[in-house]
Amino acid sequence: MAEKTQIEWTDATWNPVTGCTKIGPGCDNCYAERFAERWRGIKDHPYEQGFDLKIWPHRLEQPKKWKKPRMIFVNSMSDLFHKKIDKSFISQVFNAMEDADHHVFQVLTKRSSIMRKFVNDRYGKTGAPAHIWLGVSVEDDAHKGRIEHLRGTNAKARFISFEPLLGPIDSVDLQGIHWAIVGGESGPRARPMEPEWATSLRDQCLEQGVEFFFKQWGGPRPKSGGRLLDGEEWNGFPWQIVPHDTMKALRRAA
User: Fold this and answer.
1) β-bridge mates for residue 136, sequence order
2) How far apart are CA 214 and CA 73, in angstroms?
3) pLDDT string in tens for the chain (254-residue length)
4) Which residues lie closer than 8 Å to 124 by C-beta, 6 or more apart?
5) Which partner from 60, 126, 161, 214 sits 20 to 30 angstroms from 6, CA to CA?
6) Residue 187, Ramachandran bin (φ over 0: left; ψ between -120 and 50: alpha; else beta)
7) 3-state class of 71 per DSSP?
8) Taking the mean position of all CA atoms in its chain, how far away is CA 248?
């Protein structure tokens, strides 16, 4: 948990689960795994178990204790829809998010079909509450099918993280999507992102009316290449889907 974060598109992180396993090429150089494994075997450290999957029930109450509204990235160090996380615990996480509806929660997964089934079973025709944003990570054209799973998820707020962007995505249907984040990979083995991959997604977002956020070029460190795309920052944000009272509070805090 962190009340502050260096992730440009959110305000805080909350990890009721930590640890994960790889599911695609976007996971090859996972920053979360690299960080967690540094502490494996260090007694009483939160990552004593390294990047092995672990649930933290005592963290479920944390968002309610944060009185100031904020954008909260859920499970920055895991994937809430990992197949080994019991559905009853996922339900407790959603209960906690519902109870703290003065925040906006950003849930991001690569296990998009599991998310779709869970959310649709839980919320039926009403859809997930507007303050719970559901998103998928898409690293290349081969994994574009996750967007279809997201579009089939009954939610009022949907977003895509094209990070790390590892290849061109020349044609993508963004109907029903509210926000797109694009970024290159960072870390000691970072794979380069070609400029045309990022500009193509930007142009598709502009053409289809989707807010576009360019996070980084990447490199050895997240900020190595800066954030300018075609000479400017792109900080698109879907204010139109933020619940009204929360939106006012977030803008006052900005």
Assistant:
1) 109, 160
2) 17
3) 566 788 999 999 999 999 999 999 999 999 999 999 999 999 999 999 999 999 999 999 999 999 999 999 999 999 999 999 999 999 999 999 999 999 999 999 999 999 999 999 999 989 999 999 999 999 999 999 999 999 999 999 999 999 999 999 989 999 999 999 999 999 999 999 999 999 999 999 999 999 999 999 999 988 889 999 999 999 999 999 988 777 667 765 55
4) 154
5) 60
6) left
7) strand
8) 23
- Contact between 1 and 18 under an 8 Å Cβ cutoff? The reply is no
Structural domain spans, the chain: 64-253
Could you give the CA distance from residue 71 to residue 88 in angstroms, rounded to a whole number? 25
> Is the distance from CB of 26 to CB of 143 less than 8 angstroms?
yes
Contact 202, 182 (CB under 8 A): yes
- Report the C-alpha gap between 179 and 219 in whole angstroms: 24
Do residues 73 and 5 make contact, with C-beta atoms less than 8 angstroms apart? yes
- Torsion-angle region of 209 (φ positive above 0: left; ψ -120 to 50: alpha; else: beta): left
